[in-house]
């Protein structure tokens, strides 16, 4: 899915009036981004011979399909076997994708991928709920399903400093790797567009020197 990536200014405009974590002016946001650290969400051995970075948006249907059909096989065949270190990085096309990202990170590193799976599984429902309030309520429901407390969810979704840091982080990453669409993948420094498991496996096997 190719869409315009959010700038910090556009992110502020989209969030204005929603009551959820409005962004500060640019100089303040930059200072907050420097102060707040963004945790990389990863699976597998950091010392694995091949590194795969996925760039994805929670509102991207192709990303949901990848997480349903391709990622489980990659995890079983390459991540769990110590061949691949997998890194997931969020891309923000819209405010709903930002909210979903804040929710996914609410459970910390140990629960991130589980919550991410719930978000993608229900994407067609929450992302099309029809209004900001309805989308927010659907995301809260997913948070409850994941075992997050109501106050915990509200605190995560209202964490303005974290949001500023995340926006700055994704912009830097997307610029570095030339990300124009989601899902995109960076395999040992080389950027690829969305692909099937067969194509993914062929590239990984070549990187690993396997036939």
TrEMBL record:
Residues 20-172 form the Thioredoxin domain. Pfam families: Thioredoxin_4. Coiled coil: none annotated. Residues 1-21 form the signal peptide. GO terms for molecular function: oxidoreductase activity. Keywords: Disulfide bond, Oxidoreductase, Redox-active center, Signal. InterPro entries: Thioredoxin-like_fold, Thioredoxin-like_sf, Thioredoxin_domain. Belongs to the thioredoxin family. DsbA subfamily. PANTHER family: DISULFIDE BOND FORMATION PROTEIN D, GLUTATHIONE S-TRANSFERASE KAPPA. May be required for disulfide bond formation in some proteins. This is DsbA family protein. The lineage of its organism: Bacteria, Pseudomonadati, Pseudomonadota, Alphaproteobacteria, Rhodobacterales.
């Amino acid at each position: 899915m190719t869409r315009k990536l959010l700038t910090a200014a556009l992110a502020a405009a989209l969030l204005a009036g929603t009551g959820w974590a409005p962004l500060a002016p640019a100089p303040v946001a930059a200072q907050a981004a420097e102060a707040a650290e963004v945790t990389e969400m990863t699976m597998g051995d950091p010392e694995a011979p091949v590194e795969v970075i996925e760039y994805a948006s929670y509102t991207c249907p192709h990303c949901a399909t990848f997480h349903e059909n391709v990622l489980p096989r990659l995890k079983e065949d390459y991540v769990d076997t110590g061949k691949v270190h997998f890194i997931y990085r969020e891309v923000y096309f819209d405010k709903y994708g930002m909210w979903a990202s804040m929710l996914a990170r609410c459970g910390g590193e140990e629960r991130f991928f589980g919550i991410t799976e719930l978000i993608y599984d229900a994407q067609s429902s929450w992302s099309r709920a029809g209004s900001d309030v309805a989308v927010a309520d659907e995301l809260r429901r997913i948070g409850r399903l994941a075992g997050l407390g109501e106050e915990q969810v509200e605190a995560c979704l209202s964490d303005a400093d974290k949001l500023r840091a995340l926006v700055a982080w994704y912009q830097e990453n997307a610029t570095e790797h030339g990300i124009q669409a989601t899902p995109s993948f960076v395999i040992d420094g080389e950027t690829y567009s969305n692909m099937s498991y067969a194509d993914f496996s062929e590239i990984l096997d070549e990187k690993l020197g396997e036939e």
